[in-house]
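Researcher: Please predict.
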Amino acid sequence: MFRIMGRKWYAIYTKPRWEKKLAERLEEKGIIHYLPKVKTLKLWSDRKKWVHEPLFKSYIFVHISR
């Protein structure tokens, strides 16, 4: 955890595959958050697609005071 202006960084556990949705909701509320993503190539039987996936599954980091 890093302290900046009396706040700390916390890792929050989310429901599986809800990281991006939670990041959007935190953005709407003005809460500082961090969701590291990696670009990966997904393969299906009929196509390939580059997608951005969370680096840490089911986790998002928030910068809040207690």
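Model: The two ends are 13 Å apart (CA to CA).
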